Each structure stands twice: as structure tokens, then as C-alpha cells.
Amino acid sequence: MNDRSPRHRAPQRRPDRVRRVAYQVIRQVTAEGGYANLALNKALREQRLGGRDAAFCTELVHGTLRWQGTYDAFLARSVSRPLADLDPELLDLLRLGTHQLLRMRVDSYAAVSEMVTLTRAEIGQKRTGLVNAVLRKISQRTLDQWITAVAPTVEEDRLGRLAIAKAHPRWVIEAFADALGDRGTGLERLLDADNEPPRVTLVARPGAADVDELIEAGASRAKWSPYAAVLQGGGDPGRIDAVATGRAGVQDEGSQLVAAALAAARVDGDDADWLDLCAGPGGKSALLAALVQQRAGRLTAVEPLEHRADLVRANLRAIPGDHLVLVGDGTEPTWPAGSFDRVLADVPCTGLGALRRRPEARWRRTPDDVVELRPLQEDLLDSAITSVRPGGVVAYVTCSPHPDETRAVVDAVLGKRDDAHLEDARELFPGVPDLGDGPDVQLWPHLHGTDAMYLALVRRS
Questions:
Q1: For the segment 133-168, what is each residue's pLDDT rounded down to a tens digit?
Q2: Which residues are catalytically annotated?
Q3: Within a domain: residue 4?
Q4: Which residues form the SAM-dependent MTase RsmB/NOP-type domain (predicted)?
Q5: Which of 16, 149, 302, 351 has the most CB atoms lying inside 10 A of its own CB?
């Protein structure tokens, strides 16, 4: 028997468990259209990864997805054929390896070796040579050196360079620049803020919990919202009793601020019937329900999808009061016109304001999505205005700063009606600076540390 027989071969190394989990989550996102936060949280629970392993896995997943477009530009220079000709599972392995080499403190030899082992286990021995050669080529330059080699200069094409250097599609950068109204340092600071992992922000739902309880559980007071606390160092929010019981929840501070602004706006007359027209999954609904309950009122929450309506009900479970969740289309109200004192229209949008927490969204969304969503956004705002009584107010809200999803929608709807007008919403954000020229309000990650939430306050006259 010669020495090359199977019996005498050394056993093959097993792939690193954390890297394998990260790769499988990335495949769920890129191949199956999954959401990174949901797929990752499920995988961490099922694989019982915690502490450093969970943190390492999270950075592998979020970082690879966040910088995907930039890494593809580097890989296109390192592979002898078009990236479109590579099998998708192979391309995801190369992206994962590139992230470790260029943006993580992983030894280059170890990173390449681990990715070769993972390649063998996931897609077979035949691909290991290509992965080894490409990743070694990637490792020969730093991130800055790759950007210099691949991106145009500032003089040639500033936005094109930012697209590579800051890992955002060019069309998104152009929309942000338009919304910011400047093409100076503010734009670059925004792109940098989008690439930073967001803080875990909690909301204490009034009447059910208070911020002091969250602070006693290890959180710290947030900067703007009176209901917000920040969970320092991350960790599982579910370990806090108020969160576990639904008396508090996880909610970005910007989302809290726009809901609180609607609740603080002046209305003439009664103030007991509030409507959340696009309620799922129910974070803003729960805060509004808690606030209207303090005024002996009731929230009606409308959501077209049954499974998301169940999420709204779950969020409302710990809130006192007789609140109502309806499964229905907000553009086709089943209630009489003028039934409500306050209406929240938090409309479906591209989500470009939450790129910090949805790393895959920047590469998944396209300009066509903005065009396709526009009619629904206009119909929902029009329905919201019809649903509020004279003297009442509507908050039109998006988690996108794209001008075609914000003020353009408001102007288009109000241009067809003579019974509603915009009011200055800035006074509803006490103590919050840099709110712009009004009358609408745009929050920003780089200025406020929140998602890029937009609010326009419309009064029915």
C-alpha cells in the first residue's frame, strides 16, 4: 500500500465554526433575500454563540454585507474573469475573506487559510486554489491602497470616489447630497455614520415603564427622547425585565422623536382618538398607545398583513387600554372621514435612512424602488388627511431622506387639496439642533445619532 492511499492521508481541518455560521447567514441574505439582522439573530441563538464569538460573527456578517460593493470593485481587479461569471456562493466566500483582510484585525495568513478550509467544506476542493490565489492578491494591499488603485480621483469624479471609499451606491450618495443641500464635509460624515454599527436604544413606554428603570438595569440616558435609554456595550435587551415583558422595547431614538412630535402637536378640541395608518411591526404604535392612554384615549392601528398585525398586537400587549388593531389597507379606509384627532402615516419607503442597521439594504434597493413606492406613499398621506378631523394633525413619516420620498410626496398631495397645510414641526423637537429650515424636519445619523427619520406635520383645516 503506497503512502498516498486514503488510509494514510492526514485528516482535513474542520472550518472555523464562527466563520461558517457567518458565511451561511450571508448566503441567506444574498441568495434568499433574507434580512441580515433576523437571520443573524436566529443563527446566533441556534448555534449558541455568545460573547466574543457572537461579536466576531456579527462583524463578519454586517461588515461583509455593508462593504460588498466596494469589495466587488477590488475583486474585479483580482479575478481573471467577470464577477458575474463566478458562482454566487464563491463570490460570497471571496467577499467574506476580503473583509477579514482589509477591515478586521485578522492575520492575513490565518484569514486566507481559514477561508480556504471553509471553501473546501462549503463548495468543494476544486475552488480552493482560486480562493487562495485571489485572497493572497487582495492581502498585498491595504484598504486605502486598494481605494487609490480602483476609485477615480476627487478631481475626476468626487461622488464616484465616495461610492468606492464609503461603500454606498452612487445613486444613494446623489440623493443624500440633494437632501443635505451641501456637497462638503457633511456628506462624507453622513456616509461614515452609515458605516458605524448603531447603538442599541430602548424605549420606556409611558405608564408601563420609565427610563429610570432601564438605567437601573444598566442602560444610560439617551440624548434627545425623554423615553429613551442606550444599552451600553450592546448585549441582549431581553435580559431587562421591562423589555422582556413588553413594557419597554428596542426603538431607535429618531422613531421615538417623530412619534412624540405627533403627540405634542396642538389640536383643537377633542384628543382621544388616534390612528396609526401603517402600523407594522408596531414600535411606534406602542409608544403612541402609551401616550394616548395617558389622555384616556384609544389608538387604532392598521396593518395590511396579518403576520405583521400580530407583531403590532404583541407590542401593544403590555400597554393599558382598549386599543384596536385592524387588518386592512390604509388607502381604503373602513371608517368615516374625519374620525381621528391625530394620524401617523409612517409610510413604506426604501429605508435608506436606516442603512446603519440594515447593511444589505444599500445594495438591494434601486432607484426603481423609489419610483414604485411613490404612488402608495401619496395615497397613504391623502388617506391620512381624509381620516383626520378639521383641527387635527397628520404626521407624514419616512425612514428615508430621499427627496422623492419626503417633501416631494407632501407637496404633491397638498397641491391637490385645499383643506390641509404644512405647519412648522421644529418646535416639536425641543432641544434638538440642526433641524434645517423647516417647516418639515429631517434627522440625520451624523448630526443626531439617529436613523434619518423625516417628519412633515400636516393640519386639516
A1: 999 999 999 999 999 999 999 999 999 999 999 999
A2: 399
A3: no
A4: 176-461
A5: 302
